[in-house]
């Protein structure tokens, strides 16, 4: 199964063709996209099999199948945390699409939202195979000294239930020292960061058999300040 995760920076109804032209994928996890059910006819027809979650129709998370994979949205309580979309893929893999936000939280913004979500649903995540994909808006470089739910804590919580970052496994890089940026903030080359991730159960990502890569800025920066994360897993 070949998967792409991409924060499209909005207006996905005008950009979905880029994936068809540049990449051959089975499953798409798209952040900042519109709800196809409330958008243009051509976008709705293209969307086909999809799940979507958002606070308004113009910006949310979408999961789209380009193959014969069936998608079923899961009823996992989000407890007003933002933003999470759990979905069952082909009745075999639980996929959690993520786009963390500040969420008007003074104490648990961004990665703190994911930390809280993990506490709610850790038992469900233990059920292998499991996949967590999306824009976390986070990196271990941004730790603050008095925060006990930081990026490294989230990574540790996931590793304790055998869920690991595919990028870091594949490239043998450590958290916070990534050589391939997934974000050029405000489209500026002098502001590169790694904030987009894919985590999976070890049962569906075998380093010698599967792969992961990051899209190149010369191809994608004109459309979003985020680069797509592309990987394949055993389905």
TrEMBL record:
<protein>
    <submittedName>
        <fullName>Endonuclease</fullName>
    </submittedName>
</protein>
<keyword id="KW-0255">Endonuclease</keyword>
<dbReference type="GO" id="GO:0004519">
    <property type="term" value="F:endonuclease activity"/>
</dbReference>
<feature type="domain" description="Endonuclease/exonuclease/phosphatase">
    <location>
        <begin position="4"/>
        <end position="226"/>
    </location>
</feature>
<dbReference type="Pfam" id="PF03372">
    <property type="entry name" value="Exo_endo_phos"/>
</dbReference>
<dbReference type="InterPro" id="IPR005135">
    <property type="entry name" value="Endo/exonuclease/phosphatase"/>
</dbReference>
<keyword id="KW-0540">Nuclease</keyword>
<dbReference type="InterPro" id="IPR036691">
    <property type="entry name" value="Endo/exonu/phosph_ase_sf"/>
</dbReference>
<keyword id="KW-0378">Hydrolase</keyword>
